[in-house]
Amino acid sequence: MACGQRSRVKPEASAVGTAARGRLGVAAPGHCPSAPRPSAPAPPPLRPAQSRARRDADRAGDASERRGDPAAAGLARRPPTPPLSLGAGGPRGSAKMALRFQSLAELEALCTHLYVGTDLTERIEAEKALLELIDSPECLSKCQLLLEQGTTPYAQLLAATCLSKLVTRINPLPIEQRIDIRNYILNYVASQPKLAPFVIQALIHVIAKLTKLGWFEIQKDEFVFREIIADVKKFLQVDYSRPSAKHRKIATSFRDTCLKDILVLACFLLKEVLAKPLNLQDQDQQNLVMQVLKLVLNCLNFDFIGSSADESADDLCTVQIPTTWRTIFLEPETLDLFFNLYHSLPPLLSQLALSCLVQFASVRRSLFSSPERAKYLGNLIKGVKRILENPQGLFDPGNYHEFCQLLARLKTNYQLGELVMVKEYPEVIRLIANFTIISLQHWEFTPNSVHYLLTLWQRMVASVPFVKSTEPHLLDTYAPEITKAFITSRLESVAIVVRDHLDDPLDDTATVFQQLEQLRTVSRCEYEKTCTLLVQLLDQNSQNYQKLLQSPSRITVDMAVQEGRLAWLIYLVGTVVGGRLTYTSTDEHDAMDGELSCRVFQLISLMDTGLPRCSNEKIELAILWFLDQFRKTYVGDQLQRTSKSRKDGIVLIFPNERTESKTFNNLI
């Protein structure tokens, strides 16, 4: 902990840490009685507030003693002791050795040579010096010096390494010293939130070794090293000076009295920005606009009802705007302001404007009456249309990602029946479809954003059976195009991945499964078109694969490309078969599932004949996905629909019973 820096742990923890520091050889952070400190200023005297904290800790120790807790009382009340010496635990260092480690600069130079030095001789000398430091009687005080005043994480790592060696010696330190070391490290870690991860790990290893080696040691009839969970909880505890109920009361009062005015003021400042020409070369102006946009975003992200939603859950993303704010959101100028800012600002700032628009699109539905909601949605759709008609800003990855989120929020917060009633809906749905197709074709550009686009189409298609409006939703026109774009783009990506040695999307199975789960709903819209496309692609690629297997001189690259394409096709067949819904499926759809499934089973048989030379892990994983989806759809015990196809069994899967049932029987 740096000189003069206040501890962020509870007063009791600070008192324990102060007492531990005293017994490690230093009365307060930043002091070491054994050596001068030219490299760091002396700390200020103890402040009255700190003295009161220590007196409070002493009283807490008295109370603990009265309650029969001698260990806690001893830690709180034990006075500082003189600097530690190792005593019988190790040899006394010579005067030459003691002088060798007097300055902080020398110790940090040792760390540099040991951990980042490139000279082998210097590193060997540093290792020898480390061994000497461990045997030095000043080891503990020097470790504390490195921890509290070291300027690099390597200095802290050296201290942790020395402590680890020290506590695992054959001749252990006295139990009091080990308790002091444990308490000091716990307090140090709790009060230094910005430690390097490898330093935290090294210090935790010291605590773990102390706990393990002292597991059976007793002091005052207690196993003092077994209370590690209680010790960690004490030092990790956040010191809230007010109870949570009072915090909520303060937040509620702030929301009702000040937050709206802050939002209005921030919007006023942004209007001033648009009214005057913005000098994009002036860094101060850019910083001002950035901070104002962040202020608006923080206002919209405020925890209005006291239960922050999980940002990763799209279903819980509604912004609970207070009713008193209705007038702000009913003004068309509010939305227009942020759409205009998006078109006027550079990408770093326009991304924040889009983030604000995402929150505006997530405002709770009950804030408006039905006519007001329709008007508000119409303004949002107009702004989205304007962005799609002028897509230059979407070439920035940040803007692209935020815009995809904005599109997804439109369907999350509004019903399909409300969307189709907007005047601009036919044109906007066409633009969104084109935008989605282009995004799927450029699969390597911000792949994480595709999730939001597929979420939009999945929810829109899933809502089709429940739309009561007479206005056309046009999803039967555009959903098959989205499915086709996904299928063809994934097949085309295989050759690029293989030839350019790029990361294969198939290796990220978590993302693949997530996207396929979303696509299954979209693919069942106008299923005839999707099935025809998949049958054509399966036949073509199966024939090419069989030719490569029969070829005496197989080209490795061509085989890898063909296997990748087949893996995607098998994944996709499993997806569309798994998307079958009982209440919307027909006998014709079941027959189409049979056509696709038959071809996959034939492909499995073809691969079995070529084992083991034609085995491919990606294809095998895809087959497992297909079989799992097929089982859930047609082999499960809880199927609700009973039809002639279901009773005939094999007819369901293979409509041509005479030619195909034999193949199926051979497979099983």
Structure overview:
The protein has 668 residues and is mostly helical. The protein is built from 30 helices and two strands. It has three domains: 11-236, no CATH class; 243-473, Leucine-rich Repeat Variant; 489-668, no CATH class. It has helices at 11-23, 48-66, 70-77, 95-100, 104-115, 120-135, 139-149, 153-167, 175-191, 197-213, 228-236, 244-275, 283-300, 326-330, 332-344, 347-360, 370-389, 397-413, 416-419, 425-441, 450-462, 475-500, 509-523, 527-550, 556-578, 587-609, 617-635, 644-648, 650-653, 657-667, and strands at 218-219, 222-223. Strand 1 and strand 2 (222-223) form a beta hairpin. The protein starts with 10 loop residues before the first helix and ends with a helix. Residues 1-99 and 640-668 have low confidence and may be disordered.
> How many distinct domains?
3
Radius of gyration: 34 Å
The total beta strand count reads: 2
Q: Helical percent range? A: 55-70%
Query: What fold name stands as the CATH topology of the largest domain?
Result: Leucine-rich Repeat Variant
Tell me the number of helical segments per DSSP (H or I, 4 or more residues long).
30
Low-confidence stretches: 1-99, 640-668
Question: What form results from the Cα inertia axes?
Answer: globular
Strand order of the largest sheet: 1-2
Structural class: mainly alpha
In terms of DSSP E residues, the strand content is under 5%
Termini separation comes to 69 Å
